[in-house]
Structures are given as structure tokens and as C-alpha cells.
Specification:
alpha/beta; Diaminopimelate Epimerase, Chain A, domain 1; single chain; globular
Length: 331
Amino acid sequence: MKKVDLAAAVETLRAADSFLLTTHADPDGDALGSMLGLRLFLQALGKKNITCVCNDPVPKTYTWLPGADSIRMPADIQSAPAADLSVITDVAQYERIGDAASPIQSSRDVLVLDHHLEENPCGTICFIDPSYASASEIIADLFDIANIPLSRDSAECTYVGLTTDTGGFRYANTNPASHRRAAKMVEAGIDVFEISSQCFDSISVGKFLLLRRVLDNMVIEEGGLVAHTSLTRVEIDATDSAPEDVNGLVNFARNIEGTQIGILFREVDSETVKISMRSHGQVNSANVLKALGGGGHAGAAGATLKMSLDSARNAVLAEVNKALSVAQATA
């Protein structure tokens, strides 16, 4: 693995002729914003052979993004020639990109552009900097380094990634540089109101029904410091919701007054549970879930556990209690 700065990353991108771009499975705003923003950056460099692939379909919330209709499924590109360069954005582990991993790894080189701190990142070349609040900001900085103005389309993509990963500039990862980059995106002519409405204000009927279940199932423990909730497979199926409708529901646990840790347990099947954790204060979500094979940021992390819902709940809450004990002992 060769670590590079952004100037070297730009030169790596300039040197290649064919590209395969991807991001993590179950893509969120930053995953899609960074990948599609990079597609536009490469087009601005004059590159024409660019393919975007993702393990899962684009959530309805983001189908309007410029280039979203060009994203292909892994099965669509199995017979395609290997690209000169594959680029992975917003993630640094092959297992997180799902079925896209095989065509990605067949490329001559794999460049990783990410803002999650990883001990053993994948790829052959990487730029990873956790000081960025979003991977989309890394893409925006590529434009600056290459002295290419942000177009409205590229600004829309990168702004969606930035605003969603900072929770509308409300999360602790928001920093002065994030606001400066956002200002450049706004100056490119984006409609901040419309983007915010698309990303935050409108929810589907399925998401509304899931939210009702999430609130009904909420449990508050540890003197109000921990709030957790769950969704069983039966409950999810009963709402006829889309997979992306679960996104953001964990925040209703974390946002309860006095709560430091909010957790959502989502049953995929009888032996698989997805965990979403949000925290503020002294508890680091990524450190808590790292013991269970998960990861992410201090304030937002996730994991997938191969066990029953009850077992997953017990395992995660045991790690949370350990973290709270350490935090209280050092306070």
C-alpha cells in the first residue's frame, strides 16, 4: 500500500485512461456524492472511459444526483475489460463494497480516497485523512489542486456528501474547512434549499411506518445515558419499506435529552443483525463496535453481527457498558 497526498492522487488519475469507480454497499449521500463527484472530475480531465458500479441500487433520495442513472450493478460489468485504475471512495475495505470487489481488484491499480481511519486499508494506493468530515470534500479538493472550477453538477454531488455526513452541519465532525468548502459549492450555483429538502425533509410512507416502530420499541437505560431500539425482520416487512428507509432512524435514539449513546438494531434475518450507533460525549462509537468487527467515526459507527437479535443486543450493550465505565472512571 502506497500512501500519497492529494497532488499525487491527481497525477495518478491523470495517468490512467480507463476507470472503474465504486463505493460501499448500501450507499449513503457521501458514498454517492463522492463517487459521482469523482466521475465529473475525471470528465473534466478529459477522461471518457469511466464506469461507476455499486453493490446496491441508488436510494430514491439520491436518484436525482447528476450521473446517478449511470451507476451499474456488479453483474452488469462482469465481462467488461479490466480498468487501468479502480477508485474506491468513502470506504477502505474490499468486504464493504460487496460484489463490486471482484472487478475492482482486477484493475492494475486501486486508489482509495477516504476519510475513515483504517488500520489496514485496501488498495495499492491510498489517500486517507480523517480530518475531512466527508469523502466528498476530498473530491472537491481534487478540483482545487487540479485548478479546475467546480461545475454546478460537481458541486451538487459533493455538497450532498458533505451535508449528509455532517447532518446538515450539526454533527461534531463539522469543522471550519467544511464550511469553507461548502461556500465554494454554493458559489457554484447549487440550490441549497432544494438539496436540503431532498435529503432531510421528505420521508416516504415506509420510513414513517418504520419510525413509528422505532419509537415504540425504544428502551432508555443507564440513567438515561443509553437509548436503544430495534426493528425485527417481520416489522420491516410489514411496512413495505425500502432498504434506505432505515437510514437516519438511529438519530431518534441519540437525540433524546440526556442520552449520550443511541443504538439501532436491525434484523436482516434470523442470524444477521446490522448495528447503527451514534454517540456524543466521552464514548467513541467506532471504538465500541471495533471489538465486534465494526467501525466508523467517533460519533457514528456501524457493524454487522452474525447472531440473533437478542444476542447482538446483549453483545453490543456489554461493550457499551464497558465504555461507559471507562468514561465515568476517567471523568
